[in-house]
Design a protein that fits this description.
Pfam families: OmpA, PD40. By secondary structure, the chain is an alpha+beta fold. It has four domains: about 100 residues, Tetratricopeptide repeat domain (Serine Threonine Protein Phosphatase 5, Tetratricopeptide repeat, Alpha Horseshoe); about 290 residues, Glycosyl hydrolase domain, family 43 (Tachylectin-2, Chain A), CATH 2.115.10.20; about 100 residues, Immunoglobulins (Immunoglobulin-like, Sandwich), CATH 2.60.40; about 120 residues, 60s Ribosomal Protein L30, Chain: A (2-Layer Sandwich). The chain is about 20% helix and about 30% strand. Strands 8, 9, 10, 11 and 12 form a five-stranded antiparallel β-sheet that branches. It has a four-stranded antiparallel β-sheet with strand order 1-23-22-21, with no helix packed on it. Strand 33, helix 8 and strand 34 form a beta-alpha-beta unit.
Length: about 625
């Protein structure tokens, strides 16, 4: 059905005669089918000016308003629809509640920056996947190589979807997209690819025309149409795969579970290990219009039978465009879960048919329109998605996204840790320490030096886990981690870098190592401090230490000696488990033999004084 041509023809009818419900309604329906929600909202308002208009038009009007972000208006329209059609009252109230949720998300958006990418053409561009040094995506742009010979899709009046590859130059700007080889691009639609980890196998969606029989048809590569005519040629999705051999792609092979005469199978997505293939389908036995399924790779390389991903993910609506992140999180689009309008992006934890924690990704990743095809860079924060938001004609665009980071300042001080003794000296500033700040996504460090008072500063950003190293001759190299929670650009994040002199037989207290009464097992809070000691040993590979445990004078000498040795042994075993060579660390229990104060047997002391003696130390032995 050629909706693009139909709307123009219907408008010409209106130019010559008084508007009728039939013609006005056909225009509204055509814009709805073409995903042009702005025009659909306008024309459904015209439809409802006719008193005899069916109530379903009120629902379509509400849907269009919701897609356009007019949530307060859409809420009232849904409630009106529910009042008119009692059988749909529950659905209407659910949709009205979804409008409230969307308004809340818009008022409280996540700190994410969204940018429309320069590779967009003005036609539909969507469905990015990483490949080689760039991305592959789908587009119905005009292909300059084909020129006037390029065929046009009557549904929307634009060329058929083809696969394109593009990468960024040294200036980090996109180059010119190039059509993928003809083996992957047939005359009709080709879209939604997924590549194996080595890039040598691709699965993608191909649309083929079939004579409509008894089941619903998919006449658009991104949505399933409701009411095709019985004699129509309809478009159905199929999955094909190809391998890159001898410098070219092989002839694509049909997926074993394609059945275009009866249903669609599309939107493939490989798991990171390549052993699971997820896809969308409206095959019989599903839970809704389209469901997500998966197949397991068999030993012989074939794919096992499709299994439905289950009711946690799938709804009575449409689920499509699955993608699996490096950590196993499933991302997909749905209009069946509570969302902001159209297809929304969701995440789910689990695997195969066992999923939990389905969560809406909220604004600004989601909008009132269709949002789909999300992928993430290896850092798990930056990525790309596709959406027809901000589109006058309903076309899709590719957006990049990254967390919005509030900038602030790290103000630090380098000080020398005092040697463990009875009267602890106050920490002294250490000047001219070379400080290296590492961003998790950069190998190069930002370098600064502490001044005469040991002070230094760095410009940092909210939410990033930085590593800072302090280096100076005569001192052990020290590392620290900081993840700033900046609320404004005026925030100052404070950090003391405590350095230990590299002098044999110097002993230093390891702070915050606590044990349960009469126990020697390493508690989680103690493990965090021992982790820091393990980092120090990694930063100073030439160093060997004695790790010692000390008790207060309460209990007998023999008991305290035994308990301190058990605690020292446990601490050393933990550090060895973190990858430190056992030859570099020895355990020593001193019991109550090295008290730091007067609190020996028979002396009355406060709990605070006893606590000073219960300690863990490390001593440099080389």
């Amino acid at each position: 059905m050629a909706f693009a041509q139909a709307t123009e023809a219907y408008k010409k009818v209106l130019d010559k005669a008084e508007p009728t419900l039939e013609v006005t309604q056909r225009i509204a329906h055509s814009y709805r089918q073409m995903n042009n929600s702005k025009e659909a909202e306008f024309w459904y308002a015209q439809v409802l000016a006719f008193p005899e208009a069916a109530s379903v038009n009120l629902f379509y009007y509400a849907e269009a308003a919701r897609r356009n972000g007019n949530y307060a208006k859409a809420k009232q329209l849904y409630l009106q629809y529910g009042a008119q059609v009692q059988a749909e009252a529950a659905l209407a109230h659910k949709m009205a509640a979804a409008c409230d949720e969307a308004m809340h998300w818009l008022k409280n958006p996540k700190s994410i920056e969204l940018k429309k990418e320069s590779i967009n053409s003005g036609n539909s561009d969507f469905g990015t996947v990483f490949y080689k040094n760039g991305i592959v995506f789908s587009s119905d742009r005009e292909n300059p190589k084909k020129g006037a010979q390029q065929e046009v899709y009557a549904w929307n009046g634009r060329p058929y979807l083809q696969l394109y590859y593009v990468e960024k130059g040294k200036d980090k700007n996109w180059g010119q997209p190039v059509a993928m080889p003809e083996e992957l691009n047939t005359t009709y639609h080709n879209a939604s690819p997924t590549f194996s980890k080595d890039g040598n196998t691709v699965f993608f969606t191909r649309v083929n025309k079939e004579q409509f029989r008894q089941r619903k048809a998919n006449t658009d590569p991104t949505s399933w149409i409701e009411h095709p005519k019985k004699n129509d040629l309809v478009s159905r999705l199929e999955i094909y795969s190809s391998e890159f051999k001898n410098g070219k792609w092989t002839k694509p092979k049909a997926f074993a579970y394609n059945k275009a005469r009866e249903y669609s199978v599309g939107h493939p997505a490989l798991s990171p290990d390549g052993q699971v293939l997820y896809f969308a389908s409206d095959m019989p036995g599903g839970l809704g219009e389209t469901d997500l399924y998966y197949c397991l790779k068999m030993r012989d390389g074939s794919w096992g039978k499709p299994v439905n991903c289950g009711a946690t993910v799938n709804t009575a609506g449409r689920e499509a465009f699955p993608a699996v992140a490096a950590d196993g999180t499933l991302y997909f689009s749905s209009d069946g879960h509570v969302g902001m309008g159209g297809l929304d992006l969701f995440s789910a934890k689990g695997e195969k048919e066992n999923w939990k924690e389905v969560a809406n990704l909220q604004a600004p990743l989601n909008s009132g329109n269709d949002d789909f095809g999300i992928i993430f860079e290896p850092n798990g924060e930056n990525g790309y998605l596709s959406s027809n938001r901000d589109s006058e004609n309903g076309t899709d665009n590719i957006y990049s996204f990254k967390p919005y980071r509030i900038p602030c300042t790290l103000e630090g001080r380098t000080v020398e840790q005092a040697v463990a003794k009875h009267n602890q000296d106050p920490p002294k500033p250490v000047s001219n320490v070379r400080l290296k700040l590492y961003h998790p996504n950069d190998t190069a460090a930002i370098v600064a030096y502490s001044d005469a008072d040991g002070r230094f500063s760095f410009n940092i950003e909210q939410g990033i886990k930085y590593t800072i190293k302090g280096i100076k001759s005569g001192y052990l190299t020290k590392s620290a981690e900081v993840t700033p929670d900046c609320k404004s650009v005026l925030d100052m994040i404070k950090l003391n870098m405590t350095l230990n002199k590299n002098v044999v037989n110097n002993s230093y207290i390891v702070e915050n190592i606590y044990y349960d009464v009469d126990k020697h097992e390493i508690r989680p809070d103690a493990a965090k401090e021992l982790d820091k000691l393990a980092v120090m040993l990694r930063d100073n590979p030439e160093v060997k230490i004695e790790l010692s445990s000390h008790t207060d004078s309460r209990q007998t000498n023999g008991y305290n000696q035994m308990l301190s040795q058990l605690r020292a042994d446990a601490a050393v075993e933990y550090i060895i488990s973190q990858g430190i060579d056992k030859k570099r660390i020895t355990a020593k229990g001193y019991g109550e033999s090295k008290l730091l104060n007067r609190c020996k047997d028979g002396v009355k002391c406060s709990e605070q004084e006893h606590q000073l003696n219960r300690r863990t130390e490390f001593k440099l032995i080389r």
